[in-house]
């Protein structure tokens, strides 16, 4: 069972964070020609924002497509954002937008592909988060 | 001193309807959406605030900004341009021309700040200081040397370290002033520059990693050694430059943390693990908040401080809701 769903562009930074996390995870496909991802278990979404500035275009269109599936949307339990504080107001903006839209917590933010501390906090945090879930 | 600039030997008409690397389009769109000019920032609203700075703080500000002007001039005139012949796709070449132009906008925007806040004499003196400061000149020399070398991957490393690390001894100051509600319009302009540099560092770092994918293990080891050696060389110089500027203001230690924090992210842009441990990257929260309003809040849901989070019921969402 994958309790993480994530998007990572071809730059692969978020993918690298997920690899370091070592938890089962499902990747939202990059290309429209790929089979869309549909989930059947609750999950936490990990989503990057690269370069923002305003709301427009902050959420990757692949993630929009994934969340427009009603079943997928109903199973989201939290968001983790990735980015770079040097993007200013755009830092982890996609995570903010999704958290607000889906009314789930924006649990954590990390930069680029995360430091070892980030990995540890998220790994342990998700472990106890899922234990507390009904 | 400068060898004849290498140009691409062959050019085909660029076709934006046939894309080899989606990242080129994504970054082009991001950069053009982020486009700005200094004339749009009401810098003159900082005139009163400028008058409240001590003469030493004013001098520091002018010197910091001439240092940043030098780096942006290098990046616009040499750095980004030197990457064009190494580009793998025609769209990558186009992105570099955008980056080069934007660096020239950055370099010019410091002059907008100068002419708004300072006298011609003060400005000229600050520029003279920039040509005479040994550590600033050395920083420029190190980078220029690598841009003129013949290794495309090493050029990208030099470029990312410039974009994502070397600017930050300078960027610290307007963030520091901004955290004290001083020169806030200047800080707005600098934040636009920081945002651009972050996209540049991300993109050039991505192209670097793409280039490295095709390399042998031996070559990868060589490039990694080179990257960390260059980082150390620049870092040592950067510490001295920081001391030249900030010692008399008692800010050097605070600036160093900001340097470590950004050095780590420069390395990560290149795909390498962070070098500086957490104990020396604990940037003053006020500086982080000035950089990004989101960076300051406690978003660590996992530490137990997330008790204030209210988890509501998910709402129906349509394509149109996402403002995409």
UniProtKB/TrEMBL annotation, chain A:
Listed InterPro entries: Flavoprotein-like_sf, RNR_Ib_NrdI_bac, RNR_NrdI
Family, similarity comment: Belongs to the NrdI family.
Domain of life: Bacteria
Molecular function terms, GO-annotated: FMN binding
Name of the protein: Protein NrdI
Gene behind this protein: nrdI
Record's function text: Probably involved in ribonucleotide reductase function.
TrEMBL record, chain B:
Keywords assigned by UniProt, alphabetized: Deoxyribonucleotide synthesis, Iron, Metal-binding, Oxidoreductase
Binding residue positions for Fe cation 1: 72, 103, 106
EC number: 1.17.4.1
Binding site for Fe cation 2: 103, 163, 197, 200
Protein family according to the UniProt entry: Belongs to the ribonucleoside diphosphate reductase small chain family.
Organism placement in taxonomy: Bacteria, Bacillati, Actinomycetota, Actinomycetes, Micrococcales
Cofactor: Fe cation
Location of the active site: 110
Protein name (database record): Ribonucleoside-diphosphate reductase subunit beta
PANTHER family given in the database record: RIBONUCLEOSIDE-DIPHOSPHATE REDUCTASE SMALL CHAIN, RIBONUCLEOSIDE-DIPHOSPHATE REDUCTASE SUBUNIT M2
InterPro entries the record matches: Ferritin-like_SF, RNR-like, RNR_NrdF-like, RNR_small, RNR_small_AS, RNR_small_fam
Xref: Pfam families: Ribonuc_red_sm
Record bears the keyword Repeat: no
Any single Gene Ontology cellular-component annotation: ribonucleoside-diphosphate reductase complex
Top-level taxon of the source organism: Bacteria
Bound cofactor: record note: Binds 2 iron ions per subunit.
Cross-referenced PROSITE patterns: RIBORED_SMALL
Function: Provides the precursors necessary for DNA synthesis. Catalyzes the biosynthesis of deoxyribonucleotides from the corresponding ribonucleotides.
Record's keyword annotation contains Oxidoreductase: yes
Organism, as annotated: Cryobacterium cheniae
Reactions performed catalytically: a 2'-deoxyribonucleoside 5'-diphosphate + [thioredoxin]-disulfide + H2O = a ribonucleoside 5'-diphosphate + [thioredoxin]-dithiol
Summary of subunit composition and partner proteins: Tetramer of two alpha and two beta subunits.
Root EC class: oxidoreductase
GO MF: metal ion binding; ribonucleoside-diphosphate reductase activity, thioredoxin disulfide as acceptor
One GO process term, biological-process aspect: deoxyribonucleotide biosynthetic process
């Amino acid at each position: 069972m994958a309790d993480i769903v994530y998007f990572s562009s071809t730059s692969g930074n978020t993918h690298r964070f997920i690899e370091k996390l070592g938890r089962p995870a499902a990747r939202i496909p990059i290309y429209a020609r790929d089979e869309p991802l549909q989930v059947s278990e609750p999950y936490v979404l990990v989503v990057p924002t690269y370069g923002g500035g305003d709301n427009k275009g902050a959420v990757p269109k692949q993630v929009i497509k994934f969340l427009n599936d009603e079943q997928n949307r109903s199973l989201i339990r939290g968001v983790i954002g990735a980015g770079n504080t040097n993007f200013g107001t755009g830092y982890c903006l996609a995570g903010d937008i999704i958290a607000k839209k889906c009314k789930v917590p924006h649990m954590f933010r990390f930069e680029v592909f995360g430091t070892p501390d980030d990995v540890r906090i998220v790994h342990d945090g998700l472990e106890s988060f899922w234990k507390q879930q009904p | 001193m400068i060898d004849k600039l290498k140009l691409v030997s062959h050019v085909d008409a660029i076709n934006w309807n046939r894309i080899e690397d989606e990242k080129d389009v994504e970054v082009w769109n991001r950069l053009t959406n982020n486009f700005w000019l200094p004339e749009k920032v009401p810098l003159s609203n900082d005139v009163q605030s400028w008058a409240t700075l001590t003469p030493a703080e004013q001098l520091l500000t002018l010197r910091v900004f001439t240092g940043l002007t030098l780096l942006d001039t290098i990046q616009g005139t040499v750095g980004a341009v030197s990457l064009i012949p190494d580009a793998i796709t025609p769209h990558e070449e186009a992105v570099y021309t955008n980056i080069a132009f934007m660096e020239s906008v950055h370099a010019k925007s410091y002059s907008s700040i100068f002419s708004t806040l300072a006298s011609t004499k003060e400005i000229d003196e600050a520029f003279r200081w920039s040509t005479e400061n040994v550590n600033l000149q050395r920083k420029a020399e190190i980078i220029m040397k690598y841009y003129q070398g013949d290794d495309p991957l090493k050029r990208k490393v030099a470029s990312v370290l410039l974009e994502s690390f070397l600017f930050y001894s300078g960027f610290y100051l307007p963030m520091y002033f901004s955290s004290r509600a001083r020169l806030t319009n200047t800080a707005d302009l600098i934040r636009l520059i920081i945002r651009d540099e972050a996209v540049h560092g991300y993109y050039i770092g991505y192209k670097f990693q793409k280039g490295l994918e095709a390399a042998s293990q031996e070559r990868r080891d060589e490039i990694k050694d080179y990257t960390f050696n260059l980082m150390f060389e620049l870092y040592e110089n950067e510490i001295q430059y920081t001391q030249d500027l900030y010692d008399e203001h008692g800010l050097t230690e605070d600036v160093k943390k900001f340097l470590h924090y950004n050095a780590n992210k420069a390395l990560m842009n290149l795909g390498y693990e962070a070098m500086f441990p957490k104990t020396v990257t604990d940037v003053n929260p006020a500086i982080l908040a000035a950089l990004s309003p989101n960076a300051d809040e406690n978003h660590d849901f996992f530490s137990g401080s997330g008790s204030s989070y209210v988890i509501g019921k998910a709402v129906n969402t349509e394509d149109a809701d996402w403002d995409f």
